[in-house]
Amino acid sequence: MTTTQAPDTATRFPEAAILADEHVPAIHIWRDFAATPAQVFRAHTDPELFAQWIGPESVGADITHWDARDGGSWSYTARGSDGREDFETSFHGCFHTVREDRIVQTFTWDGMPDGVSLETLTFEDLGDGRTRLHAVSLCDSFDDRDAWLRSGMEVGVNDGYAAVDRMLAEGTI
Amino acid sequence: MTDQLSRVFAALADPTRRDMVARLTEADHTVNDLAAPYDVSLQAVSKHLKVLEEAGLVTRSREAQRRPVHLEAEVFDLMTKWIERYRRQAEARYAALDAVLARMQDEDNPTHTSDNRTEGTAS
User: Fold this and answer.
1) Does residue A5 belong to any structural domain of this protein?
2) In this predicted complex, what is the ipTM?
3) For an interface test with B, which of A31, A46, A141, A154 has the most B Cβ atoms less than 10 Å from its Cβ?
4) Domain-located, residue A11
5) In what order do the strands lie in the sheet with A61-66?
6) Closest residue, chain A, to B107 (C-alpha)
7) How many Cα atoms occupy the beta-carbon half-sphere of A120 within 13 Å?
8) Could you tell me if B63 lies within 8 Å of chain A, comparing CB atoms?
9) How many domains does chain A have?
10) pTM (predicted TM-score)
11) Structural domain that includes position A118
């Protein structure tokens, strides 16, 4: 994709589609789910449900703080093993808007505490019990945005990014 | 490699340079060709080209008199792979979310057995 225009509802996203925005340092992701907007919203705001999909399947994520309401905040730690050594990595942020069709929150990887991205998730009702998630991560700068995109490429680098990469690869269910 | 990828992304952060790259995917162009559609000086276009060259995205033939600009597709592919890798990570998370949502469907419709679940969720 080369434009940042919102895709129309005739377009289907059975798999995640991604776009690195050319005008602002943002990453867009679209993904359709076979569930109602209310269910997708619950999977993002109920800590027990959230923990089941955000981390690796065998370990999951340990939700260390969760207050999903306007002005609330969250943090979680993901633990896992790459077969040789255990690792853990943590994230935190604040909920700005928590509404059935929209969540706005900040997001920080604790390994880079000064980096803050603004995440806007919208849940669009496609009818027939289907929902489109549009996630926008707006970073501080193009450098920061590209560091996130690059995080998947720096396997072997001794930092949390490599751990996250492995964790996510193993999280395929 | 990281530095080069950073330069690639920085180079492509500019809409004019993105447009130039898009046109170079079709064919090589001279600087004059490339400059034609833009309302900027030839000097400005040369500056954009220099950024693209330093990122390794384009090269200019030294031999040919017209020195056409050529897109280095390999470098461009590297960036595409980079984004694809990130996309797959996101997809892995969302595949897990699919499974959570399927379990929620069952809990939200406890009267539906697995035999009539398809019918139940379609209604």
Assistant:
1) no
2) 0.75
3) A31
4) no
5) A17-20, A26-33, A130-138, A117-127, A102-109, A86-99, A73-81, A61-66
6) A39
7) 7
8) no
9) 1
10) 0.66
11) 17-140+148-170
